[in-house]
Amino acid sequence: MSNIDVKCVNAIRVLSAEAVQKANSGHPGLPLGSAAMAYELWANHMNHNGKNPNWENRDRFILSGGHGSALLYSLLHFFGYGLTLDDMKNFRQDGSLTPGHPEYRHTVGVEATTGPLGAGMSMAVGMAMAEAHLAATFNKPEFPVVDHYTFALGGDGCMMEGISSEAFSLAGTLGLAKLIVLYDSNKISIEGSTDIAFTENVQKRMEAFGFQTITVEDGNDLAQIAKAIEEAKADKVRPSFITVKTQIGYGCPAKQGKASAHGEPLGEDNVKALKENLNWPTQDAFAIPDDVYAHYEDVCKKGIDAEEKWNKLFADYAAKFPEAKKLWDKFHGEVDADALLSDEEFWAYEDKPQATRALSGTMINRIKDLLPQLIGGSADLAPSNKTHMNDEGDFSKENYAGRNLHFGVRELAMAGMANGLVLHGGLKPYIATFFVFSDYMKPMMRLAALMNIPVTYVLTHDSIGVGEDGPTHEPIEQLAMLRAMPNINIFRPADATETAAGWYLAITSKTTPTALVLTRQNLPQLAGSSKDALKGAYVVADAKKDIPDGIFLASGSEVSLAIEAKEVLAAAGMDIRVVSMPCVDLFEQQSDEYKEAVLPKAVRARVAVEAATDFGWGKYVGIDGTTVTMQGFGASAPAGILFKKFGFTKENVAAAMKKVLAK
């Protein structure tokens, strides 16, 4: 280990500790303990170029322990990603490029938003899956244009979270050899020694998952870390898990190895002691010696050279395989939204009752031929979710070119892996399960919304229409839960046209995830449904008068029911409008004029009809309106009986409107 290497490692430690200290907030323990492994990886084993952070064939790095963000920001600063000393001085401050946890699309070089422990591990697995699929799709003999690694760094907390086990279990099954996990093993968590809650042999667990396991006894030994990373790369059939034994807060005499180093500033005196202990040449704050910067600049040349070599390889590839280059551009380009909107075949359907899950399955097999970058699957429910792509093969250790993903019964990790598939670039993934199990997926759906990435969720069996499986499988509050989340479109279609609209929304979205909430039971095709569903709400069956007597609002399977109730009321001389509202989120984005045209303020007699909780409908029905919704958890019986039992009949819906009008 050269003196300049030691100095550069310590520069990461000092800069991280000072950023946390100046903010008087943050987590210095991980950066101090992990600095050596991070430096060795970034300096000598990762292909990356700070001058072009979006280079397609760069190695990916995920800091799963996102609380240690000061480590990542220090790396980005020293490795030329444009993060300045002033940015480091503004750590955790309003509007800075160095927020408390790394945020994708906010800070250049951050590959994923991390913070919830273990999340980064699942996203890393998704990235490794993307690399494997794209390599199988595009690589030619002597032209490995897709050939890079995914590295993830996390600690004991990441290993405790169940999402990591879910994701690693699948990674081992799939033999994702380009995935390398660095485990910062310091045996400390917030409450003290991990022995109070975590005594398992992590290496044996990872070995059981199918990983190569390697141990580095001294987390400051760059030579041993280097040897471990190269050994990991040498295994071409298994992902690798490198346990690096470290000390949290390394270098700070009063904090080293203690839980107090985890999540609080070291204190001015301890920062001073840290510098003295590391033989740092100055006590001045944020003062980095010139020879450190000079060495980092020299190291960065390797990344520039690696990209230049790849650019030449890719240019030769494009010249020799022009059709492959066209396909590459399609994978990495945007969907032609205008062309799709006017594509009659995309919007075509059979005029017969069908479940929207079945209609969605038809759309998937229609879209797969339009978008070769579409890839997706289910948490062991593809036959029920109708998410299988015909004739496209299964993604597996034996066939990474397959487009059908099998996640197993792992909903939480599935959602995290989907994030990784999008973050990697070049693919449009969808994932699926029963709607009630969105409860398992929600934390990773939230991260997708926060990162502004367009994951598509196919969520079937959307109500008490599930029937005999009973209340454990009948979603009641999930619509309200997901509608409450910012930046996600929850789309519950009523028929074929609206289902096509939902898929159009999903595959053309650039910054917003889409959840398609679909029925198990058959629904009729509606005469009045249209592409106006893309506005979130529209008049699907109008009153004869300009100003209707009342308005029904409904989504999904209850739209046809509301139309039937309208007919009942028409026979009694009442003129009612029916508004289909497949996506509240989209409707809220429309102009005030459009909202008024659909829901005139003058019409205060309103009834919302939805086989879910009434939470959220008050905004639209007002104090004079009411709802026909669920007040409890459903029951186990055939769907038709349940809809009658809980009041979802045309007679009861009509009676609810009569009561409102009588006011």
UniProtKB/TrEMBL annotation:
It comes from Pectinatus brassicae. This is Transketolase. Signal peptide: none annotated. It is an enzyme of class 2 (transferase). Belongs to the transketolase family. PROSITE patterns: TRANSKETOLASE_1 (PS00801), TRANSKETOLASE_2 (PS00802). Binds 1 Mg(2+) ion per subunit. Can also utilize other divalent metal cations, such as Ca(2+), Mn(2+) and Co(2+). Binds 1 thiamine pyrophosphate per subunit. During the reaction, the substrate forms a covalent intermediate with the cofactor. The active site is at E411. Mg(2+) binds at D156, N186, I188. It catalyses: D-sedoheptulose 7-phosphate + D-glyceraldehyde 3-phosphate = aldehydo-D-ribose 5-phosphate + D-xylulose 5-phosphate. Homodimer. GO terms for biological process: pentose-phosphate shunt. Substrate binds at H27, H262, R357, S384, H461, D469, H473, R520. Its cofactor is Mg(2+); Co(2+); Ca(2+); Mn(2+). Residues 354-525 form the Transketolase-like pyrimidine-binding domain. Keywords: Calcium, Magnesium, Metal-binding, Thiamine pyrophosphate, Transferase.
